[in-house]
């Protein structure tokens, strides 16, 4: 199960690092034009903050355990992603963007598995 948790954490880290870098490197208008219409509901600063949270969570899923420095940050990062995905689900539900909800639910479940495993029976 330890290997499975590493794989899930790696996939989550890759997905959220890419999403975070995208939000940090593009303007709100560019993001909206590329299909992220939900950005229209938020300020540019908030979109950048969400990107920073996603990028930090991606780092937090891997580096603390890899470097054996405060490995408790791994399940905390996963828990933060669960909360972030709950917020994303609420936003997409309000906007009636149901395809976005499906992706967020999958990411939420994967992050919840990592949080459960790393807080529980497979902690570092």
What's the arrangement of secondary structure elements?
Blueprint: H1 2-25, H2 28-33, H3 44-67, H4 73-94, H5 98-119
Helix pairs in contact: 1-3, 1-5, 3-4, 4-5
Describe the structure.
This protein is mostly helical and 124 residues long. The chain contains 5 helices and no strands. It has one domain (2-19, 49-119). It has helices spanning 2-25, 28-33, 44-67, 73-94, 98-119. The longest helix is centred in the first third of the chain and has 24 residues, at 2-25. It is globular. The two termini are 13 Å apart. The mean pLDDT is 96. This is Putative membrane protein YphA (DoxX/SURF4 family). It is found in: Membrane.
Comma- or semicolon-separated keywords:
5 helices, mainly alpha, single chain, 79% helix, 124 residues
> How many strands?
0
Evaluate the radius of gyration.
15 Å
SSE order, as H and E? HHHHH
Average predicted local confidence, pLDDT: 96
Overall tally of structural domains: 1
The main pleated sheet reads as: none
| Shape, principal axes of CA atoms | globular
- Report helical residue fraction: over 70%
Low-confidence runs: none
> How far do the termini sit from each other?
13 Å
Structural class, please? Answer: mainly alpha
Contiguous helical run count? 5
What amount of the residues lies in strands? Answer: under 5%
């Amino acid at each position: 199960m330890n290997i499975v948790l590493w794989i899930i954490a790696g996939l989550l880290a890759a997905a959220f690092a890419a999403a975070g870098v995208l939000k940090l490197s593009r303007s709100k208008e560019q993001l909206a034009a590329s299909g992220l219409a939900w950005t229209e509901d938020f300020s540019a600063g908030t979109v950048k903050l969400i990107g920073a949270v996603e990028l930090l969570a991606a780092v937090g899923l891997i580096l603390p355990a890899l470097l054996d420095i405060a490995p408790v940050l791994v399940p905390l990062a996963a828990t933060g992603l669960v909360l972030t995905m709950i917020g994303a689900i609420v936003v997409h539900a309000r906007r009636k963007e149901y395809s976005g909800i499906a992706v967020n639910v999958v990411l939420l479940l994967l992050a919840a598995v990592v949080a459960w495993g790393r807080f529980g029976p497979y902690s570092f």
